[in-house]
Write a structure and sequence with these properties.
Layout: H1 2-12, H2 16-36, H3 44-47, H4 53-64, H5 75-98, H6 100-185, H7 190-208, H8 223-227, H9 229-252, H10 262-274, H11 276-303, H12 308-331, H13 346-355, H14 362-384, H15 386-394, H16 396-406, H17 411-419, H18 424-435, H19 441-454
Helix pairs in contact: 2-6, 6-7, 7-9, 7-10, 9-10, 9-11, 10-11, 11-12, 11-14, 12-16, 14-15, 14-17, 16-17
Length: 455
């Protein structure tokens, strides 16, 4: 590269004799221009660097015409321009004749440099042009072609990705239609779970762009995909409502539902796939309903302590049966979601959910609800007063001993805690609480009368 620039500098460097002649000629030319500069004052309008023929012609016509005339005089302006042209030609000839020797020397120097350029610089420039064309043909153009091909390849890949996503989407549509038909006509309990997973996959297409690659085209830009979204959402809502009805009906038999029933298990798993929170709400409602039913027998024992142990045994057996059935049912259901690969059963997931707010176990949650309702009903009995309330207070120790003898942890601890309000030192606190309770309307009325009388 250094050699190339050295050679280029050599070819561009003019001979010493020609340089001296060029300087002499340039000095002479400058002297001629300075000598004749005052002679060009009248042509200043034409020698201006910002010369505009339209403006010059406009000024010329304005100077050769009268505004009040109805005719436009072009002849006078044309004569003036012809005169100026002849005058310029005459002066050029005069300058040439007066400075003949300087012009001759200048032409000779220019001829010398022209010959130097033609003999030395032009061949080198041609070689440079040839090298540039070679680089352009062998490097630049192939690179530009490759860049265009790469852009075309990206566009092709994007189109193929969109086509692939559309094909998978149509396959899902076909599978969804077939699964809906099978679910309506077949007795296979697994059809509900398959249908729920297909609907969930559809919903993920719209929420997570599953079929759209990172940075690729959005599958929802296709009208067929975008228009099917409302259909899928409608199908999902309808299927969730159907599953809720079936699960509520099955769990409504709180003492006799079958934990091994595959239809119920698959319905629970299907509902978990589509609406996890709704499933937990239904299970909590089922527990609450069972608690209310068992609570009737538990409260019956408070009316009469003769069959206290028998009633407590019945309550304990019924509650344990429900807890065992519900635990077994949920423990036999293991979701296989791709986003939750750990093998957690529905029972474990429910207990994780319950542990965020209350008791982190199904049995503990059951007895906690039971104890709260039990305590509320005891408060109601105490509010009414009478022989039943006195009987409860007098037989508090017997009731507590029976609870400790019959029930197991955690039910025993929760029930004993509820019975603690029967103790003498807690009775006054319980009575104050009753005045604020919605069960004690009569005491609230009496309090208002007392307040009015005090005024």
């Amino acid at each position: 590269m250094r050699y190339f620039f050295f050679r280029l500098e050599t070819y561009f460097h003019p001979p010493q004799t020609d340089t001296r002649a060029l300087l002499t000629t340039a000095s002479s030319t400058k002297h001629i221009m300075q000598q004749n500069e005052h002679d060009l004052a009248e042509f200043k309008l034409f020698t201006n660097s910002k010369f505009d023929p339209v403006q010059v012609l406009s000024r010329l016509l304005q100077s050769t015409n009268v505004l009040d005339d109805t005719e436009l005089d072009l002849e006078t302006a044309a004569k003036k321009l012809h005169f100026d042209a002849k005058e310029c030609t005459r002066r050029i000839r005069a300058i040439t004749a007066a400075h003949n020797s300087e012009l001759t020397n200048n032409v000779a120097v220019i001829s010398t440099y022209s010959e130097h350029v033609l003999q030395n610089i032009v061949p080198q420039a041609n070689r440079i042009e040839t090298a540039y064309q070679r680089i352009n043909n062998e490097v630049v153009r192939p690179y530009e072609d490759a860049t265009r091909l790469q852009s075309a390849l990206k566009a092709i890949h994007a189109t193929l990705a969109l086509l692939r996503g559309a094909g998978i989407f149509l396959l899902f549509v076909r599978q969804l239609q077939d699964c809906e038909k099978a679910h309506g006509s077949s007795d296979d309990p697994k059809d509900a779970l398959r249908l729920a997973k297909l609907i969930k996959n559809f919903l993920q297409i719209y929420s997570h762009d599953v079929l759209s690659p990172h940075g690729g085209p959005d599958l929802t830009s296709l009208e067929i995909v975008r228009g099917y979204q409302s259909t899928v959402q409608s199908k999902a809502a309808k299927f969730v409502s159907e599953l809720k009805t079936k699960v509520v009906h099955e769990l409504g038999h709180h003492t006799s539902f079958n934990a091994q029933k595959s239809t119920l298990q698959n319905n629970l798993l299907a509902l978990y796939e589509l609406d996890e929170a709704q499933l937990f709400v239904l299970v909590e409602d089922a527990i609450q309903n069972s608690v209310k039913v068992v609570l009737v027998s538990l409260l019956r024992s408070l009316q009469s302590q003769r069959n206290l142990a028998v009633n407590f045994n019945d309550v304990n057996l019924t509650a344990r049966s429900f807890i065992a059935s519900m635990s077994g049912l949920l423990d036999n259901c293991t979701p296989s979601s791709s986003d939750q690969p750990s093998a957690k059963t529905l029972l474990r997931r429910l207990e994780d959910h319950l542990g965020r707010t209350e008791e982190p176990s199904l049995a503990g949650f059951y007895w906690l609800k039971m104890a709260k309702l039990y305590k509320k009903n005891i408060l109601a009995i105490l509010a009414k007063g009478g022989p039943v309330a006195r009987n409860l207070t007098n037989n508090r120790l017997q009731i507590v001993e029976s609870v400790q003898a019959v029930f197991e942890v955690p039910g025993r601890d929760y029930l004993v805690d509820s019975l603690g309000i029967l103790s003498n030192h807690q009775l006054a606190t319980a009575q104050k609480e009753l005045r604020r309770n919605s069960y004690c309307n009569e005491s609230t009325h009496n309090k208002r009368i007392h307040d009015v009388q005090s005024l």
